What we know:
Blueprint: E1 13-19, E2 38-39, E3 43-58, E4 70-83, H1 88-94, E5 101-102, E6 110-111, E7 122-132, E8 138-153, E9 166-172, E10 184-187, H2 200-207
Antiparallel strand pairs: 1-2, 1-7, 3-4, 4-9, 5-6, 7-8, 8-9, 8-10
Amino acid sequence: MAVNTSLVRVAGTGELSIATPGTPEPPDATTALAAAWTGLGLTTEDGVTLARKVEKEGTAHWQRITPARYIIKSHELSVKSTFQETKAQVLSAYFGGLVFAETATGSKKYRAEISTVPKSDVRALCIDWTDAISETEIYHHRLYIPRAEVSETDDAQWSRSQEARWGMSFSALAPPGSSTTLAVWLTDDPAVINGLGAPPALAAADKS
């Protein structure tokens, strides 16, 4: 049995950020995001749910009852989270591009219209999370999706016993042109590279 307790990862903290589609990929998992990115802020303790679905359909044959091969019908990658900050960026994403404007200059009163005709609202998306195992062993992960759109929203309930929550699912969209990159995962975690999974320092210590 091959087990390695040093491979257990916990997404202790993180944040989702959005930008205009086409915003360049960040250089790595630790560099602060450029000013073009806006964080969506606090989320519920459930954090983020990443879902990947590849739909396949088996070929049917007269001579065989099992498929000879599978044909890929669709590929979906989605990110779901429930946001707790009621602010412009969150409301805009939830309502598909909603924009508030001051009713009169200096009035400090704002108005936005929710259209009867939903429109496409494509964003670039970054999901950051950090696992701080110890003071010297900290790993960063960043998932960059060049083009994504809110594909589903949860019911938003307003009550005296709970903060307003905005649950949303972002689905990755096909890249433009000839690119086949749906998303990019950036990290400084050595477990994704070396076969044993242990950080180099730990691996060296085990051999001594």
